[in-house]
Amino acid sequence: MHTKEKLMKSAFQIFAKKGPEFSLSEVAKEVGIKKASIYAHFKSKDDLLHSVIEREIEEYFFKMNGEIQKLSDNEEIVEKALEKSFSIILDYYDSSDKIYFWKRVFLLPPEGFEVELMDKINYLTNQRFYIIKNIILKGMKDGIIKSAPVDSVVLAFFSAIHGMLSSVAIYNEEDLLSNYKGIWEIYWRGIRN
């Protein structure tokens, strides 16, 4: 692994644990280099954090939203498209660091953090909401999903996911997906016709 990638991985993990109060000295120590060596790769701590967040945006939003959009476009069975979307989102969270990282970004963004980057995150979050909304609307139109306020059904979908993620953070469960099927089934029974 190259030094730049090690620095980004270290900053990701430290930010997930401590939030924006981490120091470049901590990152350098974890990577095993001198702090001054960081500047060969990043102009500042903000530049490093920006790079880390951009990389996660790519994986968490662009890649994932694309996969979910394909499910929506392929006219798959609504239940399978929703369940697979549920799974795609949860599969990203393969470590508690990812849960804490996004909780910190969404709930406590670093002070003075770039408005442009937060606007991008908000835009992509809304995009994902509308992709899921379209799948649910198709299910309602086809009579597969109960007629209900569609935004409430979409919010319940994301609430189930975020509730699971919060439960892992609160109760420190190691295997997030061990309860995935049961939670999915409860959600699906609640919305299907």
UniProtKB/TrEMBL annotation:
The keyword Hydrolase does not apply. Residues 23-42 bind DNA. It comes from the Bacteria. Keywords: DNA-binding. Pfam families: TetR_N (PF00440). Residues 1-60 form the HTH tetR-type domain. This is TetR/AcrR family transcriptional regulator. It comes from Clostridium malenominatum.
